[in-house]
Amino acid sequence: MNLVLLCPEDLVAPDRALLTGRRLAHVREVHRATVGDDLAVGLLGGKMGRGRLLRLDDEALELTLSLDQAPPPKLPLTLVIAVPRPKVLNRVVAASASLGVARIILVNAWKVEKAYWSSPRMAPENLRQQMILGLEQAKDTVLPELRLARLFRPFVEDELPVLVAQGTGLVAHPASGESLPRILVAPVTLAIGPEGGWIEAEIQSLLRAGMRPLDLGPRILRTETALAALVGRLAF
């Protein structure tokens, strides 16, 4: 936790916050802060700044706030990600938020097992918590937009062309022959398939929607590895 991220309900006054639970434990056990210390803080959806510890005990911590910094800008990037295995999902969502992605769309694919959609990790409260963890890591306060697209074909035929029309659409697929652009200069929609890859019918649907294929090379990567490699090459 590089940033103590506050929710509006944590505020007991415009310039004061009271925290318990996970964030209290982290400040005590990881930051090892003491009364009088300053911490990097931010208000969810708002500004960032410093929080001075007024109280720190077993029950709660209290901060006086000075929030005067804008959060970092979001990347003009929409990620379309085939739902990964549940144990990978948390890492993918948190990493996407940490990287500054503006929009995440979790989509179905032929190689996505139906059981993934009913996993507790797909619950809205868990997905939101993973994005919050990503924001805390990266020192950001603005959540990405998150959407679920359980039906592949309606999404690709009706919604994806609208996204692609706003900039560039790219779909990661081995042996496509096209290398990745080196810089993200306009809105980009980037589609990353399941670890077994898109099937041919899905690739053809994505291409008809206006997506361009791109190739990371001969190695088959895990979803979270492909995510880091692709966004890193595009944006950093």
What does this structure look like?
This protein has 236 residues and is α/β, with parallel strands linked by helices. It is built from 7 helices and 12 strands. Strand 7, helix 2 and strand 8 (101-107) form a beta-alpha-beta unit. The chain is elongated, with a radius of gyration of 20 Å.
Q: Compute the number of helices.
A: 7
Strand percentage lies at: 25-35%
Task: State the end-to-end CA separation.
Answer: 22 Å
Number of domains: 2
What is the radius of gyration computed over CA atoms, rounded to a whole number of angstroms? Answer: 20 Å
Please give the number of β-strands: 12
Which term fits the overall shape? elongated
Summarize the main sheet.
Answer: 6 strands, mixed
CATH architecture of the largest domain: 3-Layer(aba) Sandwich
The CATH class assignment of the largest domain is Alpha Beta
Fold-level CATH name of the largest domain: Alpha/beta knot
What is the CATH homologous superfamily assignment of the largest domain? SPOUT methyltransferase, trefoil knot domain
Average pLDDT figure: 92
Unreliable stretches covering 5 or more consecutive residues: none
Percent helix: 25-40%
SSE pattern: EEEHEEEEHEHHEHEEHEH
Biggest sheet, strands in spatial order? Answer: 1-4-5-6-3-2
Structural class label = alpha/beta
Key phrases:
236 residues; alpha/beta; Ribosomal Protein L25, Chain P; six-stranded mixed β-sheet; six-stranded parallel β-sheet; 7 helices; 34% helix
TL;DR?
The chain has seven helices and twelve strands.
Please describe the topology of this protein.
Layout: E1 4-6, E2 11-13, E3 16-19, H1 21-31, E4 38-43, E5 48-56, E6 61-69, E7 75-82, H2 86-99, E8 101-107, H3 114-117, H4 124-138, E9 145-149, H5 152-165, E10 168-172, E11 188-192, H6 200-208, E12 212-214, H7 223-235
Parallel strand pairs: 1-4, 7-8, 7-11, 8-9, 10-11, 10-12
Antiparallel strand pairs: 2-3, 3-6, 4-5, 5-6
Helix pairs in contact: 2-4, 2-7, 5-6
